[in-house]
Amino acid sequence: MRTIVVWAGLLLGTIAVQSVLLPLIFSNGTKPDILLIIVVASGLLAGRERGVGIGFFAGVMQDFASGNIFGLNTLSKMATGYIAGLAERKVFKESMVLPVLAITMATFFNSVSMQALLLLLGYKVELIPMLQYQLLPSLAYNILFCIPIHRLIYRITFGNRSQF
Description:
One of its GO terms (biological process) is regulation of cell shape. By secondary structure, the chain is mostly helical. The chain has helices spanning 2-25, 34-46, 48-66, 72-86, 97-120, 127-158. It starts with a helix and ends in a 6-residue tail after the last helix.
């Protein structure tokens, strides 16, 4: 029960900060996707079931908060959490390189999957401006925040057994 309360509090607090505070700090609408970092870290550290579950709830909350096409963030975050969770048994969880590599790949995958879903829904997608003005700055911010968030998720997942 405690675990559910901790995860719910973390996700609710993160969506509040990501929706209200980060747009005031970061310019041009490009900001870190902290929910994506949490989804990737939970998948890497706890497996695909946790990655999909956290991805679902994070995506639903982000869909509600953004006002965009409902389900877009949910599907992309669930898929990203599942793929991150596939690597759970194959990685050294205490590595400092792991979060950086994982969030780099996950940011690209999440963005490509969202653009593919938009194309499937019949929306026009311009890849070069999206890459230049949205994906690359967001990737830089995600890399900046990934190590501290990965450490936080490690402590939530494994408790005080941390050597991190």
